[in-house]
Amino acid sequence: MSFSPLIRQLIDALRGLPGVGPKTAQRMALSLLERDRQGGLRLAEALQQAMEGVGYCSRCRTLSEAEICELCSDPRRDDSLLCVLQSPADVWAVEMAGSFRGRYFVLKGHLSPIDGLGPDEIGVPALIERLEGSAVTEVILATNPTVEGEATAHYIAGLLRPLGIRVSRIAHGVPLGGELEFIDGGTLAHALAGRTLIS
Amino acid sequence: MLPSPGPAYVLHTRPYRDSSALVDLLTLESGLQRAVWRGARGQRRKLSPQPFVPLLVSFTGRSELKTLTQAEVAGRFALLQGQTLFSGLYLNELLVRLLVAGDPQPILFAAYQLALEQLAGGASVEPILRRFEWQLLDNLGYGFSLTEDAGGQPIEPHQRYVWHASDGLQPLFQPVSPDAGLSGAALLAMAADDWSAAGTLRTAKLLMRQALGVHLGDRPLVSRSLFARRPPSSRGDLQ
User: In the record, which residues are listed under signal peptide (chain B) (predicted)?
Assistant: First the structure.
């Protein structure tokens, strides 16, 4: 069956979302049109408002509709700790964990030379600028535990050490509840290299 | 019957659709190979496509873009950190930029494998990079003699030389300064794989920059900027 141009347009737009294939997009479109037109209009309005109203925090560069996001304007947070992450989604992940009370800084991804993404492109100069004259005494590098994430962390650490700022890296290795037998060699190699003293 | 799995390394990964990845692989059998790695980014993935891990892989597909049907770890993970990690990324960028897809490069594959092992083993970084650059140029058909000049005369240790893309090394008869051009002694040391003198590394870097530059074109190698220990807006130098 071929759909009319407007329905086709709606299905194609929904297909642009992550995790949405052609069948799911078709079901969503038909569900909105047949059973929930009000919901469809609310969705359209929410999308438009978010696309036009959500920008980036000028301080930490996470998604925000205010010039300074809620996390940056919260006076109860620890100004001496700065956690550096790869994306706004990572900020939410750390916040959900509930154990970090410092500030954040979001890079534009990770170093990827083959994609033409060097230090300038991912926002390292903005990080240096953020640290100049700040109260930060420790920077926690929480880039992903991938080769590119590691390279990003090493690069930033090399720049920050001369500034007299303590630089730490989030631990990675064997997951809680994991069994050594089933863990890949790369993860085990990192876990052994980053081992900690018990006493 | 499906082809048997062959040795490979992931050079680069980029996200593709929801949970897959487009990977550039250096394979023993077909050189640079681009493929779709299904489920590479899903939470249920068995193996994540990471560089510097020796793999055994097999593909299907007739087009230039293959589909990965099997991937398993085939050896020890080369744990690269700091400068050695940047060096590994530099090697990968060189390969992706200069290799032609589907052109088998077994000697280069072995050279890459050895370079990773040496980097992971803590050997001095610069000789490893210079040696690999030279092997890369040579295997792509861009090599030139380090023991003879363009006219077929032996390289003289006390002579200075200039390199030309068209015909290789030529004597520099009236150097502007004593250290202008390339030292004959350093060129001979390079040919003998002797990196003990500091001047050899300096000459090798200069020569490799020139020789690679011809084939890299105007777009700079981004990985070179990682070796800088200066704020990033001022571009760094490799080592």
Answer: none
Which domains, from first to last, does chain B contain?
6-73 (2.40.50.140), 83-227 (1.20.1440.120)
Q: What is the residue range of A134's domain?
A: 76-193
Say if the Cβ atoms of A147 and B96 lie within 8 Å: no
Q: Is the pLDDT of residue A123 over 90?
A: yes
Separation of CA A82 from chain center = 15
- Cβ of B230: how many Cβ atoms within 10 Å? 12
Dihedral sign, Cα of residue B146, residue B151, residue B152, residue B156: negative
Q: What is the CATH number of the domain that holds A124?
A: 3.40.1360.10
Which residues on chain B place their C-beta less than 8 Å from a C-beta of chain A?
11-12, 14, 18, 24, 47-48, 50-53, 73, 76-77, 79-82, 85-86, 88-90, 92-93, 96-97, 219, 221-223, 225-226, 229, 231-233
Residue A71 lies in a domain: no
Question: Given an 8 Å threshold on Cβ–Cβ distance, is A159 in contact with B223?
Answer: no
**At CA A171, angle to CA A168 and CA A175, rounded to 5?**
170
- CA B206 centroid distance within chain: 16
Q: pLDDT tens for residues A60-89?
A: 989 998 989 989 999 989 999 999 999 999
